[in-house]
Amino acid sequence: EREAIVLKLQDVEMAYGAIRAIKGVSLEVRQGEVVAIIGSNGAGKTTLLKGIVGLERVAGGRILIDGKDCTDVPPHKRVALGLALSPEGRGVFADQSVQDNLLLGGYSQRKDRRKVEELVEREFARFPRLKERRQQMAGTLSGGEQQMLAISRALMSEPRLLLLDEPSLGLAPMVVADIFRSIRALRDSGLTIVLVEQMANKALAEADRAYVLETGRVTLQGAGRDLLKHPDVRAAYLGKH
Ligand code: ATP
């Protein structure tokens, strides 16, 4: 039996003024899946994630969360429905401590102090590196640590669906491996994940399924493993072999 559909996009269109950034994208994400969205610079990956969480408005089509039309639901309500975004470029508060970044993430969703502190401790157990640096200003963390913090902060809302925008961006290969290990652990804990990546090989190797986005359209979709072997994908995104 197949798992329930957590997220469904039907013919979603998005635009910046006259620029059509997303031109009718349909996709679905089932509970427990890791779904990758790959594509080159400017393909529309970040735009699509913003549409999913409600940070940019959708010009056409529908976004369904658990089968419910949420196309016009504001971002904070989508968080309450179980969505959380770890944004591209991390977006941590540079002049706040690691711990305060997490607390801020927690209090945006709930008021119960004890519960929020419990969630911070859970994150510190997940990422011991962050625990060691709990008092350090986020802006002085390494790139990889900032990425961990961004993911961790997104997890403070206890999402069912985590959307990761280019978690490997600008990181050294060993650090990328660390981040992907963390993503795998989250998947193993049952979390559903949408992974936007330019590092197509890494993303496809992790993903149950994947979509290739080219100038605002899905041009290929399939099992991560199959796309990894697909000649068009290899030629465009994985270098020649
Ligand atoms: P990257 O990997 O480089 O972040 P991407 O696939 O995430 O690329 P988007 O950032 O979603 O792509 O951009 C899609 C298109 O929309 C691009 O042509 C981009 O220039 C345009 N775009 C993105 N944000 C805006 C904006 N705020 N105003 C106008 N155009 C935008």
UniProtKB/TrEMBL annotation:
<dbReference type="GO" id="GO:0005524">
    <property type="term" value="F:ATP binding"/>
</dbReference>
<keyword id="KW-1003">Cell membrane</keyword>
<dbReference type="InterPro" id="IPR027417">
    <property type="entry name" value="P-loop_NTPase"/>
</dbReference>
<keyword id="KW-0472">Membrane</keyword>
<dbReference type="InterPro" id="IPR017871">
    <property type="entry name" value="ABC_transporter-like_CS"/>
</dbReference>
<keyword id="KW-0067">ATP-binding</keyword>
<dbReference type="Pfam" id="PF00005">
    <property type="entry name" value="ABC_tran"/>
</dbReference>
<protein>
    <submittedName>
        <fullName>ABC transporter ATP-binding protein</fullName>
    </submittedName>
</protein>
<dbReference type="GO" id="GO:0015807">
    <property type="term" value="P:L-amino acid transport"/>
</dbReference>
<feature type="domain" description="ABC transporter">
    <location>
        <begin position="7"/>
        <end position="240"/>
    </location>
</feature>
<dbReference type="InterPro" id="IPR003593">
    <property type="entry name" value="AAA+_ATPase"/>
</dbReference>
<keyword id="KW-0029">Amino-acid transport</keyword>
<keyword id="KW-0547">Nucleotide-binding</keyword>
<dbReference type="InterPro" id="IPR003439">
    <property type="entry name" value="ABC_transporter-like_ATP-bd"/>
</dbReference>
<dbReference type="InterPro" id="IPR052156">
    <property type="entry name" value="BCAA_Transport_ATP-bd_LivF"/>
</dbReference>
<comment type="similarity">
    <text>Belongs to the ABC transporter superfamily.</text>
</comment>
<dbReference type="GO" id="GO:0015658">
    <property type="term" value="F:branched-chain amino acid transmembrane transporter activity"/>
</dbReference>
<keyword id="KW-0813">Transport</keyword>
<dbReference type="GO" id="GO:0016887">
    <property type="term" value="F:ATP hydrolysis activity"/>
</dbReference>
